[in-house]
Amino acid sequence: MQQVSQCFHCGEPNPTKTSFQVLINGEQQTMCCPGCQAVAQTIVDSGLSSYYEHRTEVAAKGESLIPDELQQLEHYDIEQIQLDFIKQNGNTTEITLTVESISCAACAWLIEKQLRFLPGLIFVNVNTTLNRAVIRWDNEQLVLSKILEQIQRIGYKAYPFQVNQQELFYTKQVKSYLRRLGLAGLATMQVMMFAIALYADFFSGMQQEFITYFRWVSFILATPVLLYSAQPFYVNAWRNIRNKTLGMDIPISIALLGAYSASGYATIVGRGEVYFESVSMFTFLLLLGRLLELRARRKASETSSNLLRLLPSMATLLETNDGIISHQLIPAKTLIPGQYILVKPGETIAIDGIIIDGQSNIEESMLTGEHLPVFKKSRDNVYAGTVNISSVLTIEVVNIGNNTLISDIIQLQNSAQQNKPQIEIMADIVSRYFVAALLLVATLTYIGWSLIDPDQAFWITLSVLVATCPCALSLATPTALTCATAQLNKQGILIKQHHVLETVNKIHHVVFDKTGTLTQGDFKLLNTHLPALGVAKYPYNKQQCINLAANLEMNSEHPIAVAFTQLKNQTLILNNIENIPGQGLQATWEDNGQKLQVKLGHAAFCGVTRELSSQELLIYLTVNQQLIATFELGDEIRESAMDLVSFCHKNNLETTMLTGDISDKSEQVAKQLNIKNVVKGVSPQQKLAHIETLQQSQQVMMIGDGINDAPVLAGAHISVALASGTDIAKNSADVILLGSDLRKINLLTTNAKQTTRIIKENLAWAIGYNLIIVPLAVMGLVPPYVAVLGMSFSSLIVVSNSLRLLK
Predict the structure, then answer these.
(1) Where in the chain is the domain with CATH 2.70.150.10?
(2) What are phi and psi of 328, to 5 degrees?
C-alpha cells in the first residue's frame, strides 16, 4: 500500500490526485491545499523561510488564509517568524523595515505622520536614502501586522529588512526602470524624427493629410510612454494627493499629463502645436535621473548590508557520542549557546564565542577598521563575521543571531538614523512647502503669460513645473549623513546619534577619563605590601590577601579586577557585597566563625590615614578598619593617547583629565600626555557636576569607559565610549570606538568637518539652482527639454557629491 505524504505546512495528509508545491530552502515541498500553498509561498516570498527551520510544530491549516493582502500580513505576528528581524526589550519591540516606492522627503513625512496615529506606537523614523524605516512600539498595545497594514493603506509596501529581500527589491526596481526607460527611449527616437522634420518644415510641400498622419503616429507612440513608462510618477502623485500632502511628483505629473492632453487635443481638432516628443523625452530623462539616483543611493546603503553578508550560513558542529567526536555541517541559525563548533583557517566565524582549544590570528577589520590581525588564544573572545587566519579553533557558542556583536553594530547603524539633526528637519519642512510654492508660481505664470502671449503660456508653465527640483533640497542632508556614517562604521567608529556629526564641529573642550581610556586598563599587580609583624590585628599572608581582594573584585567590572582574579587560587564566600563606583568595594566575610567587615579601595574609603608614597596606583585592603595589605598596581598609557591629546591642542581644544583615582598616578599621566587640567578623586556625581559647570560656557566632549563614567557620558554634549568598556558606559555614549585606537576620534572630527562642508555645498547647490532656474523659467527663457535635464541632474549632483564621503 502506497504511503500518503503529509503537508509540509500543516502536517495533514496530501490528496493523491492533486499537487500543490512550494520551493522552500532549495527543495520542492508538497502542500495539501491551495490555502497552505498560499501561506507557505507568502512566507517564502517575504524572505522568512527560516520559520520552517526553527518551528517546533506544524502550522494551522491554511484554507481560511488564502491570501488577501491584509490577511497575509498577519504571518508577521508569528513569534517564530519574528525571531530573525525584531529586537525585544521588555514590552518594547523594535524593527527595521524596507519600504518600497519612497521617492522624497514628503513620502517619509507622510508615513511618519500616519503611523503616529496608531495606539502603542513609540517611535518612527523613515530614511529616504536607505528606503528603510525604524519603528518602535509597545507590543501589549500594537502588533506588527497593524503597522504594515497602516503603511499599505497609504499606498506603500513594507516588510522586515533582510539582506536577501533588499537585494531582490533593488534588482526588481532596476529592471522595472530599465523596461520603462527602454520603451521611453525607443518612442522618443521615433517621435523626435517626425518632430524635427515638422519643426524644420521638411513637409511643407506635402499635403495636410500626411502631416496629420505623422501627428497621429506620434500620438500613438507617445501614449504607451505616458501610460506605462511614466506610471511611477502618477502613482506617487496620486498617493500624495490622496493623503493630502505635497510631493515632488505632483508637478511632474501635472506637466506630463498637461503636455500630452494639449498635444492630443491639437491632433484631434487639427490645429495648434503638438509636443509628443517633449512628453517622451521628459519621461526618458526623468527615468534616467531616477535610475542614476537609485544606483547612487544604493552605493550609500551598501555598508550595513555588506556587514550582514559577512555571516556564514553554515557552521561545523562538534558532537561527542560515546567518546567519539563527530563533525556535522549545520545551519548556523540552529546553533544554541553552550555547543562547540570547529573553525578552520580561512573560514569566517558564524557566532560570538570563546576559544576552547587552539590559538590563531583573527582578522577583525570588518568590526574595528584595524587591518592588522589580532592574536587570540584559549579563553579569548571571538566574534561573528571575523575571519580565522592561522590555525584550527574549537569555539564555544555564546551568542547567535540578533545577540551577536555584528548584529549590535547593525542595530547601532539603524539607531543613528533615528534622531534627525536640526538642519535635516528644516530641509524636510522647506522641501514640503516648496512644492506648494511651486504650484502657486506655476499658476501665476500661466495667468500672466495668458495675458502676454497665450500661445506660449502653457509651455512656459510646463517648464516652470519641470525645472524646479525640491528633491535635491530634501536629499542634501540625509544622503550626506548616511554616507558619512557608513564610512565611519568601516573605520570602527559607531555613531549612535545623528546629531554627533553636527555637534562635533562646535566642541571647545575634551574631557578624558584616565583608567581604561588614556591608559590601557590592563593592570598588573606590581607589589603587595603587608604591615609589619605585630602591627596588624588580623595577620594574613600575601596569597590570602590576594585571594580576599580577588573575591571582592569578582563583583566589579573595573579593569583593576583583572589584576587580582588572574592570581586567585581560592574561592571565599562573601555576603552583603556593595560596589561603590569611584571608591571601592565592601562586604561581610565569615572567617573562623567571625563576621568581618572587608573593604578594598582608595585610602579615604577604607579609612587609611597613613598612605604609602608611590607613582603607581595604590589600593588598600582592610578588615574591620584594620589595614592588612596595600597593593601597588601598574597600568601603561595607550600609544594613541599622545596623538589624540596633541590633535586636540593643535585644534585649539582645551583638555581635562577627570578621574576617580586620587593617587599621584593621575598627575604623572597628565604630565606625560601634556593634559592641561587634572581633576582627581571625584565621584560619578562630582564628575557630572563638573561637566555641567563646563557646559554652561562651552561645548564639551567626554571620553570614558567605566561604570562611574555612565552619568557624565549621558550628560555631555557628545560622549565617546570604548568598546572594551562596560555595557552601561556604551549605552550612555553617543559614539562607540571599536578597537583601542584613540586616534579614531581625530578621524571622527575630520569626517564631521567634511560632512558639514558637503551638506552646505549640497544645500547651496539645491537652493541656488532653484533660485536661478525658477525666474528664468517664469520669464520663458528655459526650454522644456532644458528644464527636465536640469531637474533630473540637480538631485543627481547632490547625491554624487555626498558619495565623496565614502572615499
Answers:
(1) 315-347+351-399
(2) -140, 125
Buried b (16+ CB within 10 A) or exposed e, 233-249: bbebbebbeebebbbbb
Using an 8 Å Cβ cutoff, are 805 and 480 in contact? yes
Mean pLDDT across the chain, nearest whole number? 78
Question: How far apart are the C-alpha atoms of 598 and 548, rounded to whole Å?
Answer: 9
Decide: helix, strand or coil at residue 799: helix
Query: What's residue 656's pLDDT?
Result: 92
Strands 594-601 and 86-89: unpaired
Alpha-carbon distance values, 218 to 202, 275, 382 (Å): 16, 9, 66
Write down the CATH superfamily of domain 500-520+637-733: HAD superfamily/HAD-like (3.40.50.1000)
Long-range contacts of 29-33 (CB under 8 A, 24+ apart): 30/5, 31/7, 32/6, 32/7, 32/61, 33/7, 33/61, 33/62, 33/63
Residue 14, judged by CB atoms within 10 A of its CB (0-12, 13-18, 19+), counts as middle
3 state DSSP class of 558:
coil
Helix (H) or strand (E) run with residue 342 in it: strand 340-343
**Cα dihedral 197, 201, 206, 208 sign:** positive
Interior/surface letters 435-470, b for 16+ CB within 10 angstroms, e for the rest:
beebbebbeebbeebeeeeeeebbbbbbbbbbbbbb
- Classify residue 126 as exposed, middle or buried by CB count within 10 Å of its CB (0-12, 13-18, 19+): buried
CA angle 699, 705, 708 (to 5 degrees): 85
pLDDT of residue 244: 74
107-138: per-residue pLDDT in tens? 777 788 888 888 888 888 887 766 778 888 88
Q: Give Cα 422 to chain centroid, integer Å.
A: 19
776: alpha, beta or left? (left if phi > 0; alpha if psi -120 to 50) = alpha
Average pLDDT across each block of 10 residues of the chain; the chain has 807 residues. List them in order: 66 70 80 69 65 58 41 63 70 81 70 84 79 83 85 78 64 83 87 68 59 82 90 84 76 82 83 75 77 67 55 80 75 84 87 89 72 81 85 88 71 55 65 78 89 83 76 72 79 79 88 85 85 70 90 80 82 86 85 87 85 81 90 86 91 89 81 89 82 89 76 83 66 78 89 89 86 88 75 77 82
**From-to residues of CATH 3.40.1110.10 in the chain:** 524-634
Instruction: Indicate the pTM of the whole model.
Output: 0.61
- Left (φ > 0), alpha (ψ -120 to 50) or beta: where does 201 sit? left
Residue 88, classed as helix, strand or coil, is strand
686 within 8 A of 511, measured Cβ to Cβ: no
Cα of first residue to Cα of last residue in the chain, in angstroms, is 68
Other beta carbons within 10 Å of 161: 25
What residue has cell string 599587580? 525
Contact between residue 75 and residue 81 where contact means Cβ atoms under 8 Å apart? yes
Q: Which CATH number fits domain 524-634: 3.40.1110.10, 3.30.420.40, 3.60.20.10, 3.40.50.261?
A: 3.40.1110.10
Which residue is listed with cell 545577540? 403
Is CATH 2.70.150.10 correct for 315-347+351-399?
yes
CB atoms within 10 A of CB 770: 22
Using CA atoms, how far apart are residues 365 and 348, in angstroms rounded to an integer?
A: 13
The angle at the Cα of 62, spanning 61 to 67, to the nearest 5 degrees, equals 170
Rounded CA separation 238/319 (Å): 59
| Helices and strands per DSSP (H, E), number in the chain | 27, 29
**DSSP bridge partners of 701:** 510, 718
User: Using CA atoms, how far apart are residues 256 and 227, in angstroms rounded to an integer?
Assistant: 10
Report how far residue 246's alpha carbon sits from residue 106's, in angstroms, rounded to the nearest whole number. 7
Amino acid at 121: L
